[in-house]
Amino acid sequence: MKKILVATGGGDCPGLNAVIRGIVKRASQEKDWEVWGSFEALNGLMEEPTRLIKLDDKTVAGIHVLGGTILGTTNKGNPMNYPERQPDGTFKTVNRIPWLVDRLKSKGFDAVINIGGDGSQAISQAMFEAGMPVVGVPKTIDNDLSSTDFTFGFQTAVQTASDSFDRLVTTAASHHRVMIMEVMGRNAGWIALYTAISGGAEICLIPEIPYDLDVLVERIKGRYNEGRGFVNIVIAEGAYAKEGTITASKGEFGRHSVRLGGVCFSLSQQLKDAGIEADIRETVLGHTQRGGTPIAFDRVIASVFGVKAMELVLAGKFGQLVILKNNDYTAVPIQEAISSYNVVDPHGTLVQAAKGLGISFGD
Amino acid sequence: MKKILVATGGGDCPGLNAVIRGIVKRASQEKDWEVWGSFEALNGLMEEPTRLIKLDDKTVAGIHVLGGTILGTTNKGNPMNYPERQPDGTFKTVNRIPWLVDRLKSKGFDAVINIGGDGSQAISQAMFEAGMPVVGVPKTIDNDLSSTDFTFGFQTAVQTASDSFDRLVTTAASHHRVMIMEVMGRNAGWIALYTAISGGAEICLIPEIPYDLDVLVERIKGRYNEGRGFVNIVIAEGAYAKEGTITASKGEFGRHSVRLGGVCFSLSQQLKDAGIEADIRETVLGHTQRGGTPIAFDRVIASVFGVKAMELVLAGKFGQLVILKNNDYTAVPIQEAISSYNVVDPHGTLVQAAKGLGISFGD
Amino acid sequence: MKKILVATGGGDCPGLNAVIRGIVKRASQEKDWEVWGSFEALNGLMEEPTRLIKLDDKTVAGIHVLGGTILGTTNKGNPMNYPERQPDGTFKTVNRIPWLVDRLKSKGFDAVINIGGDGSQAISQAMFEAGMPVVGVPKTIDNDLSSTDFTFGFQTAVQTASDSFDRLVTTAASHHRVMIMEVMGRNAGWIALYTAISGGAEICLIPEIPYDLDVLVERIKGRYNEGRGFVNIVIAEGAYAKEGTITASKGEFGRHSVRLGGVCFSLSQQLKDAGIEADIRETVLGHTQRGGTPIAFDRVIASVFGVKAMELVLAGKFGQLVILKNNDYTAVPIQEAISSYNVVDPHGTLVQAAKGLGISFGD
Amino acid sequence: MKKILVATGGGDCPGLNAVIRGIVKRASQEKDWEVWGSFEALNGLMEEPTRLIKLDDKTVAGIHVLGGTILGTTNKGNPMNYPERQPDGTFKTVNRIPWLVDRLKSKGFDAVINIGGDGSQAISQAMFEAGMPVVGVPKTIDNDLSSTDFTFGFQTAVQTASDSFDRLVTTAASHHRVMIMEVMGRNAGWIALYTAISGGAEICLIPEIPYDLDVLVERIKGRYNEGRGFVNIVIAEGAYAKEGTITASKGEFGRHSVRLGGVCFSLSQQLKDAGIEADIRETVLGHTQRGGTPIAFDRVIASVFGVKAMELVLAGKFGQLVILKNNDYTAVPIQEAISSYNVVDPHGTLVQAAKGLGISFGD
User: Fold this and answer.
1) All domains in chain A, ordered by first residue
2) What is the pLDDT of residues B143-152, one digit of tens each?
3) Which of A51, B194, C281, D218 is least crowded, fewest Cβ atoms below 10 Å from its Cβ?
4) B160 at interface of A, judged by CB pairs closer than 8 A
5) What does each C-alpha distance from B212 to B186, B223, B240, B271, B333 come to in angstroms?
6) 3-class secondary-structure state, position B117
7) Which ipTM value was assigned to this complex?
8) Chain B to chain C Cβ contacts (< 8 Å)
């Protein structure tokens, strides 16, 4: 009997359970493969005693509709830089990848499917280079991996944000307000951009396009002057103002400086400082975007990723990452996949289309 | 032809449009009644030129599914305390109710249906006492009117909050986090209480029950110690700690002192100050709770309220507020309705049931 | 240690799991009570070997958001009329209630909480009369129990139907069609009535008001003549035409005669036979109305019902059914509760309000 | 001032209004373009008097969230084969394209954007060949156009079907039933395939893979024998059995022979005839799949299609169809686009992945 270990690492993302189910469903069609899960990324394997669970058709029944991951996850304890207690009581950072590969083999595992983002796939690659047969499944709520057109979770986050936005629009219009909604995206503004187009925002602020406060103020005042007395703004948590365009608040509210409500809070203040007299209200969606049942689109991607990952294992193709490219499910070397990062192109098709819809980016 | 004026006042609330549609639909079955709407509460009538709109079956077609109000609304310019510019340029607060009733009559209105909360209904009563035939329709997202068992909008707010809560729970469980979700409710904790029961929260903090920080900390640590490493907290924006139970933060974070994230932000800080080491994440639902399409339950209440209000007008029963009491649609004198206020009873059935479900109120 | 047995009987209903969780959560606060579940109503107890499961906080974690029942259910094998195999191979119907009560006691059960509809509560009453301490929890998707204002599941069914209706309306309007949507309700038209009001239907057909086909035809033609070329119809599966009003189809399409699409199919044919030339499209919601996650309102009712049922057990108050009456959670004798049935009153407030909204019942 | 005419043709599809809004928003950024809409496809232009409407920012405000089309649509009166009344009272089919192009020019239109499916785009091409500057926007709920990877509406239909499926699964499991859900798809099984993967169906029947009844029966009985007593089936309305595999029902239930419940009804009967004893329940989603607010993904595609179409007009690139190919928005000649049709490949990636998930296609 051959054994495969599955782990989920990094932040939450709708669809993780559907990937796990896909792997197990496909594996159960083979006579000679067993699937095991490691709790909390690879920690379940690294600890003594181990915390592993055998996964079969019954364990995964119905889990594709659930958010989160039945295996739990963690952001701590990267085995490439593991804090190891020294005899003198201090901690030293060590590379535990070789030890990890030995442990996997000593526990009888023939392969690993590692589901996770950049950090997790760097571990996948390191394990692969250290001799472990590994297949990676990409996970990024931000849709910022250049090797795959879409990943599971992203469209669910956009849907959740868009639904909330729809709810805010009616209040904005009835009360003639400026509504600011902060969505995820520290470095990539995809969620904000898609939400702004889907929801019909007037303003969309993303990390890729620093905004000019004067431009925003002009746009907002213009709306009120032309008799349409409300403005809806989507802002990515990583958005920030151009150098020198904020005077009153400068120094006080830098990028990421206020975590709850983050830039959102500061934007509200910035607008007030700059003379916007309309009522301004903020909403911070926070982790609602990362949780909950995946939309159908994401369940399909995640389920197929799971099946594909298992088929790569069966075919003996390791060091590969499952992707969806040009509407086809295929794979690329992990090494290649994690070397480039996909942010919004300020001059690309989608931003231009958004501008065609009348959305201002404050530039 | 007889004319009726409809106005919507105060904060946004899902179902306002369904009330308007109900009034118009019922009125259109009479040969001799016309319905007019005043934009932005009664301001549309008070301004010169007036901003009024004739409402017929076509104007209201399909609006029952929309959030907000097609008439717009405002919180400003209460006619009972109207800021009137004096010859010397200063402002003086005057009671413009008599003037308002004159104006209504001079514009040919035979009756008014005023849809709104406490403040709006005080105006309804004042107009009624000044000789204007008025019928009131209650509106409170907080469900805090003692004369009616339910009003439209409340259950929609609870549903929106509960849906968001469901999304947070999966992340909390996967990441072993403390999740804090702030919902509406400055004086009444109904939305928080219903959401906590619906969502299966571990902790629910409401204005009616000041919390003891030590009790919260004990409960949270207990959860982690028994191996269920996550806690979900619903907090009403008006919740606050008991006197003397917060030391480090005292003075810094009073009730309502921090508006964005409000008490929520301070609660997160309070918990950290008190030694909670787990990751804590906050979500502030804000106005998403007040907007969007009403759930079916609220559409039914609102639509029937509209029909009932028009039937009171037809029957010549004025000074009345439409209510839903003991599962029946009826009416009470406005005067009686606005004299009492319905907050959560800390010893009542629902709080006891919530405790039976294991929900802690921090008391 | 005292033991209680929980069972769920009859048709599916969103909220069953929340009731189970409520019972277990409340019981877990007592030192001396264990909760057990019987699979497939009481069959799990009656079979040899038994199929019972011990329920604790972990078993019920998170189940309140799930549709269906973790205990399964069945419509078969009523113990009051149990088909018992005789020595000669034939079956005879016997009353196994006394045997059932003996078995409960011999298995060490001190009390039973029986969740179910009319049939299940008749069994509850019979067991109670035979000496078993029983508490009942009412379950009816149709909201047809007169002793309780609302039960869990009903509003979820209405919401599901209303959401589907909203989707149909846009197509009806764009294509100038007659849309017929069949909802549940063989004897009571509550789901149809609430859905019609919530959705803004033009026509609502329910079992309590037999329709006159000529009236429907006139209404439909009227809509097309006045330039609003579409009609949306909600029909309860038990609706039927008045005697003598259908000529062409009479005899062919009686009440309940065509199960898939039921009366709906026949209504479409009836309208065509009667000269309606517009495109007619049908949707049969079927069991989508009985399944899925309960809306927040129903989760609250169900959770509180569970806690209340356990508290009745603790207080030693048996032979009682938990109810929600006049906005308060209380209890009535089961005997009293199951003796009357609550259908839509053709002259009641809601039907009159619906007519005020322009909804025709074909009468 | 230059004028453009917009029309929407064929069946309903979530996203049509977002396309219209996209066109108008983009055009409003030009000084010299006016956008007009023709009611009910091109009929509004062809009739006398015309039924046209000028579209500006206010007309299209907020329509992107609405299902249907504000312009209405129709399946009747194809101008390529127009039934023209002859002097003797009979009708003759004539090609009115030349007349239509003349009429467009005489009414001052400089370009046409035609939103619609195969039939509509054939008209687009004919008008283009007759000298009219035309840009096409593809519309197909079935996702069966080979030139574009995705179109708006498809994912919304899948989401609606998947949501309904989720609701059925819980009842199936609790009651040990066979649930059959019929979705759209007469010739292409994409909606059924995506829904089956998203929902976790056991069986998926599509037009591209005729099913063998014996295979289905074996699969269903296998599920019950292994103790998992429920089966969920998704069936496209155009699915049908292989020749010779249905004996009892043969001749009675051919493909498309029973329209309401279509094959679904017959499948239920076929299974009963073939010895399945479990309860079988059917749901026919019908037009709920074509209506309602589009999901965010579809709103983005539709909005960008609208902007792109207008930009093609501005760039003078006619005879083109807007598409989304390889994750990029671009265009192809209409002629090329409508010449090939995209059905599910029985040996393609998605069907293989579905089989990997344990979904049987009855082959």
Assistant:
1) 2-152+292-338 (3.40.50.450), 156-289+345-356 (3.40.50.460)
2) 888 888 889 9
3) D218
4) yes
5) 19, 17, 9, 11, 41
6) coil
7) 0.92
8) 136
